[in-house]
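Anyone? Bumping this.
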Amino acid sequence: GNSVTQMEGPVTLSEEAFLTINCTYTATGYPSLFWYVQYPGEGLQLLLKATKADDKGSNKGFEATYRKETTSFHLEKGSVQVSDSAVYFCALYGGATNKLIFGTGTLLAVQP
Amino acid sequence: DTAVSQTPKYLVTQMGNDKSIKCEQNLGHDTMYWYKQDSKKFLKIMFSYNNKELIINETVPNRFSPKSPDKAHLNLHINSLELGDSAVYFCASSGAGIYGYTFGSGTRLTVV
C-alpha cells in the first residue's frame, strides 16, 4: 500500500539557516504530494503541493520538487525564521488508495 | 469566514460518557473526513463521507459513529469514552483529493 517516510525530528536550526526536511514515498501509479504545516496549538495548513512528476510546489519561501525517479518530495527553505517553528507533515494522495496519507511529522525549532 | 469549523475546540469528559463533535464546511466540497492525531502527532484517517455516503471506514472501534446530515456537515459521536480516546480530532473536506484537503482547527478531547 501507499506510505510516506519523513525524517525524524526535532530539527533545530538558527535563524537564517538553510532547511531541508526529507520525504520519500511508496505508491503505485502517480500520486499527488503535499506538505502541510501545523503551528503550535493550531490545525493543519496546506503549505504546498505537486500533482505530477517534476512539478515544483512553492509557498512562503518553501519549495519541494516531485522526483519520481527517487520517489522523493524534500522540503527546502533558504533562510528560516523563528516564525517557521512548527511540525511539518509530508503527505500523499492517490495511487492505490483515494485517501490522504501522512508521514509521521517533523518538528522544526528555529532559534533566534 | 472559516472554511472548515469544528466545535467544541476543547472537550474534557469522564470515562464512560458519550460525546459528540460537530463539523461544518462552507467550501462546497463533496467529501468530508475525520482524522485522529495521537500524542506523538501521528495522523490517521478514521472515516470519509462523500455527499452523505460513507466511503471510508478504517479500523475504528464501533463506539465511534459518524453522521452526515448533508454534504456540508459531518459529526462524530463517541460512546462509552475510554482513556485511550484522548487525542486531537480533525475534520477535513475536499473537492478533488488530488489538490489536497482543507482541515479544521481540531478538537482536543481529554478523557479523565
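Late reply, but here is one note on the structure posted above: The radius of gyration of chain A is 13 Å.
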